[in-house]
Amino acid sequence: MTLEPADTGGVRSLDELYSAFDGLSIEGGWHRRSPALWPEPRRTLVPHGWRFADVRPILAAAGDLVDHEMADRRNVTLTNPVEGNIYPTVRTLVAAYQLIRPGEAAKAHRHTPSALRIILEGHGTYTVVQGTRVEMRPGDVLLTPSWLWHSHAHLETSDEDCYWVDVLDVPLVHLLETMFFERYPGDFETDVVEADEAPIAFRWEDSLRRLGAEQQQPEHGMAHREIQLGDPAMRTIALHVQEMPAGWTSARSRTTANSVFTVVEGSGRTEADGTVIEWERGDVVAVPSWRPYRHVASSDARLVRASDEPLMSALGLLRTERLEGTSAQIETGG
Ligand code: GTQ
Ligand code: FE2
């Protein structure tokens, strides 16, 4: 049997080969402009902090200028300030500050992204999640799991504006091309029961009580005391409340999970891959995947960490490395 020469379609040079690729929307693995595989996560989005003191007056101005009826949700999203980024805070998550004023109501809707809120200020505000109305008080964390109806309302029992931080996995849903969004027919759920305890509500006083009962420092050394809200809170997002006494320095670590920290109490700084982010109550800190970071508390501090740990874990992609630092390090002189 004689071997016929392979049919090479008349391609006789590398130039012709690469033109042939172009015509068929194919590419040689050795010929790409940028590689498809690399040794470890690249630095794309950057560590960054947003100060509530900067955003609060702007949101208050939006409160005067932007009619709530028109805005639907009066929120200001925290866009990671890397060149070219127009939306995410970290790769899978977006955070936003939201304001609702006495007498206002944000209509019911549902979406495939999961969401949660960390309340910063105000009383008299309620969220209705799939027929259950729960009050939102400072420090509380409320969940809106994927595809559940939700609306918010300020019932004018006080004249305080209500501010909170939203964290949603919208960027993940964008990536997965699984976005669905629907408005509730008739604007608000009508069959509503009020509850003070609900699976979607984590009360600040409960978090404080649980933190107080913690005996052990968590093994990762990134907080002095830590509790988890939920197990995990939602399919894609985990929530931890982290406590650090004044003068305390965490271990330094990196993890493939993306984190968004909300400062509920105290002040300090986060050093993340060379960036120093000072924070105080109400501030939000983004630490993207694989950036080495540590926290230093200058006064007794409590942060809520929202992360995509359950997502990474479910996919076998969660890696966490403790780089240095013992848990007991106390920085003197703050
Ligand atoms: O409160 O339902 O910040 O749907 C972004 C999208 C908040 C909400 C956001 C939302 C909401
Ligand atoms: Fe929503």
Q: Can you give a write-up of this model?
A:
The chain has 334 residues and is of the alpha+beta class. The chain has 2 domains: 48-203, Jelly Rolls (Sandwich), CATH 2.60.120; 205-331, Jelly Rolls, CATH 2.60.120.10. It contains 6 helices and 23 strands. The chain has helices at residues 14-24, 52-65, 68-71, 170-176, 204-213, 309-314; strands spanning 48-50, 75-78, 94-100, 105-111, 115-121, 125-129, 132-136, 141-144, 150-154, 162-168, 181-183, 193-194, 201-202, 225-229, 238-244, 252-255, 259-265, 268-272, 275-279, 284-287, 293-297, 301-307, 320-324. β18 (268-272) and β19 (275-279) form a beta hairpin. The longest helix is centred in the N-terminal third of the chain and has 14 residues, at 52-65. Bound molecules: 2,5-dihydroxybenzoic acid (GTQ) and fe (ii) ion (FE2). Residues 73, 75, 96, 98, 115, 150, 166, 168 line the site of 2,5-dihydroxybenzoic acid. Fe (ii) ion binds next to β4.
Task: Name some characteristics of this structure.
334 residues; alpha+beta; Jelly Rolls; 2 domains; 6-stranded antiparallel β-sheet; disordered C terminus; binds 2,5-dihydroxybenzoic acid; binds fe (ii) ion
